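Issue 218. Parser rejects a valid record. Input:
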Amino acid sequence: MPASINEEADRLLGATAISAEPPSAAAPEVLAQDLASRGTRVLLNCPSCGSSHVAQMLGDNGGVSYVCTACGHSWS
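Output the parser choked on:
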């Protein structure tokens, strides 16, 4: 039994390291969905300002879009 919730989270996630490099320019949402389906954390950067302060939003029709909380730019 783990001594803390952080140890359990690291064990379940396989202690996945988050890369400081931005995701590839080709279809970042596809990369995010692919990695998320494997239980891997993804660091998305805003294509407008490069900030890592990005929030994922769900649309009414079930689609996924992203918004940068630093500059307000949104994309899907």
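Fixed in the parser; the record now loads. The beta strands are 54-58, 64-68, 74-75.
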